[in-house]
Every structure is written in C-alpha cells, then in structure tokens.
Amino acid sequence: LTGEETGLIGYWNFDDSATVATDLSPVANHGIITGGTYVRATPLALKNAIANLSLAGNLSEVISDLTLPTTADGDVTITWSSSNANAVDNTGKVTRPTQYDATVRLTATLSVVDGGQTHSLTKVFTVIVKAFNEAGWQVAKWDFTSENIQLDNGVIKVKDASDNAYVATLKNEASIRTIGVSDPFNVLDLGDGTGYMDLDTLIGQAMYAFNNYTVCGFFRIAPDYSALNSDGNYLWTFSNSANVASEKNGFIGTDLKAIAHTVSRIDNTLGKQTVSVGSNAPVGDWHHLAYTQKGTTGTLYLDGIQVATGTVTNLPVDLALEGRTGTRYNWLGRSPFTNQAYLRKTLVYNFQLWRDALTEDDLNYELEIASTVERLNNAFAEDSSYILPELVTERDALTLGDLSAITQDLTLPTQGTDPAVSIFWKSDLEAALTATGTVTRPETFPATVKLTATLFKDGQSVTKDFIATVLPLEGTAFTNDLMVKFDFSDVDGNSVKDVAEMHYSGTLVNGAAIRLIGTSTIYPTLDLYDSTAYFNMGAEMGSILYNLNDYTMSCYYRIDSANTWIGNAGNFLWSFSNSDKTGTDQNGVLFGGLRSQSVVISPKYWSTGEQGISAGAAAQTGGWHHMAYTQKDTIGSLYVDGMLVNMDTITWV
User: Can you give the pTM of this predicted structure?
Assistant: First the structure.
C-alpha cells in the first residue's frame, strides 16, 4: 500500500532490518515480515480469539466503565491502549467529558507464544463517551460585534457570540475593520502579510467530537489580490500541527484557491479526502461559503447554492491523537503548511461552527445569506473603512513632544481626553525604551525607537507611530572616524581584537588561523584555508552597521592561484546580516563578494529589492589585492587596488 488510496486502512513503513512492519495510518495494524513478504502465519488460537473479541454494551453511548478482557482461550493475553485516556483509560475506566462527546479508539493487542515465538494481532474498537452536559448545536459564532471585542495588553481579542464564548486572538497584521455607516458591520481584516485569527485550542475539543458538522462564513477577497492561485489561501483550518507536512498527523481546512474542503488523517498527499469546486473563489464582492458533513457525504455551498459534493469517510473524530483532547491549531486565514500562502487582502464576517449538518434551507433562511450578502456589499460601498470620529480626534491630538534627544523616562498616556478611549503602547526596541516609557540609554550610538500607540473604543482601534531617539551615555561614543580595524596583530587563542579605539573582539571559526608572512617586515594575516573556515567579527559590529549612513569598508585579500571556484555563488569577502539563514528569513543583508567584485545591500534578500555595484568580473588570483566600498549620501563607489571601477545610486544604508 502506498497510503494514497481513498479510505486508507493501512500504511506500512518497511525497514530492511526490521522484523515488524509498523502501520503509520491512524488505524494501527501490525504484521510479521518474513523474507521481505507480509505473511499471516498466525496460530489458530490467536485467530479465534481476535474473531471472538467483543465489548459489551452500546459503544456509541458509553456512560459507565467498560469491561476490557485481558485473556482469551488458548493462553492468549490481551493488553489495551486508548487514544484518549482522559475519557477511557487502558483498564476501561470511563470519565465522561463535561461538554462534548469523546470519540475514543481502544486498541486491543492479542498475543500468544507458539513454538518459542510471540505472535500478536490488534483489534480496534471505536467508542463514544457521552458528555454530562450536551453542547448546543451552534458551537461558535464570530460576528465581531463591538461588545465582544477587547484590547488585552495591546492585543485584539474577540469573543464568539455562542454560549461557549470562545476567545480568539488577532495575529500579526490582522485587525478589526468597520464597514458602512448607516448599517455598519465589524469584520475581520486579514491584511496583506501574515495576518490571521487564532481561534485558540478549546474549540479543537469540539472538532474531536464531530461526526456531522457545518463550518461556514462570509468573505470578501479584494479584486487586486494576485496570489489567490497560490497553494494555501485557507479560509479556515483545524489541525493537529502547525506544519502538517513534517508531522503528518492530520488536518481539516478549506482553501479559496480551489474552493476545496479537505479532511486528512496524515498530510496533503496521504490519507486525504477532498470536496472541491476546482476553481478560484470569486473576488470583488461579499460571498458566503459553507461545508456540511452528513454521514459520509460532504457538500460545499457558495452563497447558499450547492456547488460540489462527494463521499468523505474521514471525519473530524478520526483526527483524534492519543494524549490530546482536540486540534491545537485552529485558525482563520492561515494554512497548516508553513510553506504555503496566508489568505491576504480578504475580509471575513460571521464565521460559524455547528455540530450538525445544516440543510440548504437552514443556510439560506436561518443564516439569511442573500440579505446579509446584500447588506455587506452596501456597507462596503458606503464606507469601506469607517472610523469613529472620536477615535480620529484622539489620534490626531495625541502627542509626546520633542522625542529627538531622549535621556529620561517618558510619561505615556493610557487613556485619551475621552476616558472611554484606552491607549496601549508598543516599543520596537524595549532595551532602550519600553512600552511603559522607561529609558535605558545605550552605549556608543543613539537608539532609534518606534513607539506605536493603539487607541481603542467600542471594538474599533487606530494606531499612531512616534519615532524617538534615545541618546547614548556620555563618554561612550566614538571619537575618531576609524571605527574598526582588524589587522590580526592582537590575538589570544581564537580571539582577535580590533586595534581601533573600542577594541571589539572577533573569533576564528572552523579552523581559521593567523598566518605570519614576510621576513624583513612581518604581516599577520587571516588564513581561511581550503575549508569552511571564517572570521566572526562579532555582534558589536552589527550596532555599527545599524548606525551608518556615510561609510567606507575595505580589505586586503589574496586568492591562491589554485582556487578554481572563485566564480561560484558565495565567496564573500565580508558579510553583515540579520540572520545566518538569509535565504530563508530574508530580513536584511549587506555583503562584499569576490565572485564579481561586488557590494550588495538589501533589506530583505539579494534577489528581492537589492541594490548593488560591481566590477563585473571575478577577483584576480595569485597576488595581493584590495577592495573598498564607500557610501556618500546616495552614491556608492567601488574601488579595486585603489582605482575607481564603478559608481552608482545606492539608497539603502
């Protein structure tokens, strides 16, 4: 079996050295391997025992302890394991849940010793433990009414309007936006980055209990959203992992790339079942999407009209993992696969979850889809982003005075002149200026800090940024233009100090060494050998880079004539980066490379928005040379062996 079949029963991982093949599917089966062939050389007593093994009572409505046999005829022993020991443990003790029924897989392992060899088989029983207090049919409803929105320590949280009152949290760029004036709606705005709404873990307990269910909501995709055809673009996700691709433990989700609802016990290729329209969701207006599951039939509705249906035997209860009470990663606007696109430039309204399959009539009449879509479109046309006038007034009036030379703590107001307006502050550099206004003066360089004020009232919020400069401590600043000079003359083991005024320390890494050359005049040099050796100039160098506008950096170098790989990617003479994985993190880099004798700077990555200057040819080998780069205002100049070889406009610093 490859694991790709619909209705997956077994998915075995065969190890050449193993005698037992372990089933990786959610339904655990085991087999004995002999000569590379799956065989069933099972003693008769074991066959009879597994055929006759049963559990007494109605397993779909368990309310009391179960009797789990531990032996069978023919010296067969039976051990038990539970997928949810909090509901039924391996002795059969039952603990009824408070709110939602618990579906539990009890696995019996039957074993017998025959001819000195232990033979084992497993049998799985699915039981449903009834909750003490059966939950209502409506599990959650996020309609974003003002009374359910709060600012908690600077984070927007939204309570759902059902009896469960689940609390969701807005993440990253996600925000609440009000559309319309005469008939206003608060809606979730996912933004144009990595914004999403975290529904928290409690709602995952409901997912583990579902057989029949409905999940639905209104959405509006901006007409200029160009990434809708990218993988990802999930409107909702309920997952056992933040990255199912690596953990392969199951998820439920609906994407708007293909208007497709997927339930998978494993990942996006194995154990997956999907009901799909097969085309992008419509853009430019409000729409409603719903998925219902009744028995083994899954159905998608767009604007209350059935658009796709199919057989789906994977149910939310099948995602239940041992030791867990529910899906842990429950989101609006985010995929369960880390390499996929977030849903962007999209508004969401009235997301609902039901523990029953709503009918087409239920959707159209109880949820009033047609009239709500019309009202949403009218509201958006009237005012696509309405802000309370009093919030605008407070934001415009908020001031902190002169922030250009801070040396003492600031007083940051926590409410407006209207006491109903609360203000929360956030600092992007707490080490220098905290969100409560506490100042810690840095050494050497001034610190530039962005303070962001979030003003909040009646579920709406606006922000205002302030740029503050915290002055360095007296006597710690550079007094000379030469800031760093590593001439490799001050060495202590693997530590090398620069000989300029601050004496910053660098480190020899991966076999890098100091080699002395010359006789009449001796020069200490850094030898990188034919290896991965390098010299780490230290984090203090980074503080210098963050404070440079006009600057010069230069270095002597000698490339051995035996070097045949100087034209390959890499070969950096110097590199300053915000990450040691710049290609992945893409958060800023400046490097000087000898592959083409170039200097490149980018606030993201070399291939995204870079600016650079180059000599256009690889550095020469077999002798000593010098490369220098100078930046004056917006002009970058490149020198090789003291000669200007190129200059260009460089605006990044």
Answer: 0.73
